[in-house]
Amino acid sequence: xxxxxxxxxxxxxxxxxxQELLRARETLKGDELxxxxxxxIREVVRKQRDAGLQSATDGEFRRASWHMDFIYQLGGIGQAxxxxxxxxxxxxxxxxxxxxAALRVHDRIKLDAPIFADDxxxxxxxxxxxxxxxxxxxxxxxxxxxxxxxxxxxxxxxxVEEFWRDLSAAYAEQVRRIGALGCTYLQFDxxxxxxxxxxxxxxxxAGRGDDAEHMHLRYIKQINAALAAxxxxxxxxxxxxxxxxxxxxxxxxxxxxxxxxxxxxxNVDGFFMEFDDERSGGFEPLRFVPPxxxxxxxxxxxxxxxxxxxxxxxxxxxxxxxxxxLDQLCLSPxxxxxxxxxxxxxxxxxxxxxxxxxxxxxxxVWG
Length: 367
Hints:
By secondary structure, the chain is of the alpha/beta class. The protein has helices at 19-27, 30-50, 68-71, 117-126, 141-147, 160-180, 192-195, 199-207, 215-227, 259-265, 310-320, 348-366; strands at residues 55-56, 75-84, 87-91, 94-98, 101-110, 132-133, 135-138, 185-189, 235-240, 270-274, 294-300, 329-333. A hairpin with a 2-residue loop joins strand 3 (87-91) and strand 4. Helix 1 packs antiparallel against helix 2 and helix 6 runs parallel beside helix 9 (215-227). It is globular, with a radius of gyration of 19 Å.
């Protein structure tokens, strides 16, 4: 088993919010809500440890959304008062919509204070010996992907290159300051790098004026700029999925379109990748993974509660190992269990059964 992240058995980050915490969010504010969150996080950290995981998150219990809660705290970015983003998600029953407030870049982007600093500090002090605290934040790509050129005030950024420089600089400062708090495991969540494999998503970007055929190269460049001075001893991973909202998805397609540039140019230590169904394509793109990089196979779905077969998981790991060395592989769910406060359509018991299955399977495969 690995003693540094990503671990052979790992998970993406978000976990189902307990009902008592959901009720607290409706009725409590300020210090009382914080105390309720603290109690829920202590319990969910204990459950991650009991499941056998070597890393733990706070389940993103203090957030309503995996990405917008972070992005809105960047200096220069705010919510549009009278406009919403509409993201269409799909499931077996039909379509549903996620409609957060649109974002606006109304001033120069900067980091006024490290985001989620107190949240990470509480997690760091809670996990206990032998468990690595993991912080998840949205990739800088998500600031652009959600809003596009129309979200950037041209009077603030007449030259888009200045926008990209400021955005990466703000993220670089976030990485530095979180590292100073003792964070050694940081994950950039980035749906854009998976969405861009879908021709329909690229068509949408082209329609709003982006260079959709090369957008992944821009995103890779800006993430690398954000990580250029990462602290020594910090592991950086990225998680890429095709949407996760109330057990629904937004995009389809294998990783073929981005794979060669992604694996060879993105300067992260590991890739959490969605591979739970046919929408994700095959393992062939893993042939581009260079030595030294880790791939965390997201073979266990978070979108439904039925437990996967251990034999099936082992067979699929063997299939992936045809394209990248087995020693470079790990196992996880394909996404978080609750990317937004609503959560996916499974129970907390089913969620932890899946995490235990991942731990047991990893132990049997890698020892």
